[in-house]
Amino acid sequence: MRSSGLVATGTRFFGPLLTLVLIGCAKAPEMENMTDAAKKARIEAMYEEYRAEFPGVREIDAAGLMALEKAGSVVVVDVREPEERSISIIPGSIDKAEFERRLPELGDIPVVLHCTIGYRSGVYAGELRGRGIEAMNLKGSILAWAHAGGPVVDREGKATRRVHVYGKQWALLPEGWEAVYDR
Question: The pTM is what?
């Protein structure tokens, strides 16, 4: 009987505690309930976590890329997988394979790489740097681009607000955009 008294005592203590924890979890903000400012802050924090994986890689933010595009002097390389690119791309961007094929003809044109948030493009920029090729990584990549008001287009070249974001944890697009992911 003594052990059931302990269980009862434990239940009286842990029951309410468990309820508070579950209520807290239920009220924890999901990504789709986050404000755009909170999403941008999360993108920046995640990118900073990844940044250690590609030291020495030059960066550019979305506004800087927009300025280069306006000047007409940039090659934008989307290093995402074909299924991601099939949903949408930054207009005029090329994939990694096309970039590698065209590398000899590009000369001194600035190169900006992107993926979903900047990890894969940062790693690739590091690889290129090791080969003596300078490329800039787009901080926050297509997520930051969308938050900055940058356009994306579908495979027919029509404006869209759908972006493949690789996985649920990167579903941090601004209000009015749709995140597509398989993971």
Answer: 0.82
Ramachandran sector of residue 56 (left: φ over 0; alpha: ψ -120 to 50; beta: rest): left
Which helix (H) or strand (E) segment holds residue 16: the answer is helix 2-27
Tell me, which fold does domain 34-180 have in CATH? Oxidized Rhodanese; domain 1 (3.40.250)
**What does the pLDDT profile of the chain (183 residues) look like in tens digits?**
333 343 333 443 333 333 333 333 333 346 668 999 999 999 999 999 999 999 999 999 999 999 999 999 899 999 999 999 999 999 999 999 999 999 999 988 999 999 999 999 999 999 999 999 999 999 999 999 999 999 999 999 999 999 999 999 999 999 999 999 987
- Domain ranges within the chain, ordered by starting residue: 1-31, 34-180
Tell me how far apart the alpha carbons of residues 31 and 22 are, in angstroms, rounded to a whole number: 18
> Alpha-carbon distance 172 to 41, whole Å?
10
